Structures are given as C-alpha cells and as structure tokens.
Amino acid sequence: MGKAKREAKHPIHLKMSDKTQPSSSIARSSDRPSITTRVIVKLLVFSALLFAAPLLTYFYSIDTIFSGNTTYAAGAAALVANLVVIGYILAAMIEDMSPDKDKEKKKD
After folding, report:
1. pTM assigned to the model
2. Residue ranges under compositional bias (Low complexity) (predicted)?
3. What is the C-alpha to C-alpha distance for residues 72 and 62, in angstroms, rounded to an integer?
4. Alpha-carbon separation of residue 88 from 8, 45, 56, 58, 92 (angstroms)
5. Which among 1, 5, 27, 40 could disulfide-bond with 31, CB atoms 3.0 to 4.6 Å apart, if both were Cys?
C-alpha cells in the first residue's frame, strides 16, 4: 500500500471564492468616525506644548523667579504641564459638544 498525500488544510493555503462577501460585523467606511485635520492639528499643538512649556518654565523660572531653587522651578514646571493637560481636556470637551448641536439643527 502506498502512502496517500494529504493536502495542506492550513488557513494560509485556503482560497476565498470571488463571491465571498465581507462580514456585516466589519465597519464600513461610512460607519467609522471621521478624524478631521483640525483634530490632528490640535493634538500636535498640545503635544508640542506638553513637551516644551514645562521645560521652558523650568529653565526660565530657575534663574529669574526662584533664584536657583530647583524645587520651586520643578513645581512650576509640573503646574504648567497640568495646565496644558487641563487645556487639552477642555478643548476636547468643547469640540465634542459642538457636533451634537449641528446634528440637532440638521434634524429640524
């Protein structure tokens, strides 16, 4: 008796027919939330601020405001970093509220 060759049944080797339709669970492009350029610019601006503002605050305040006291300068830098984060959160909340008003106007 000869050994019968088996075909590979691995998913990589399976071929899909041309009639195969994508699953309905896959989100269509119209169902996805759109990311506008304004959102990307806002994220980049706040990211740059979160990097630069605390550093600039630290090095500016260490000599001019706190006369070499690094602890107070670091505290000021931490305060500025928190203010940038709070600003980003508020900007995101304001932006999130504005589309709801536009949708209500379109429904009327």
Report:
1. 0.61
2. 22-33
3. 8
4. 54, 10, 19, 21, 6
5. 27
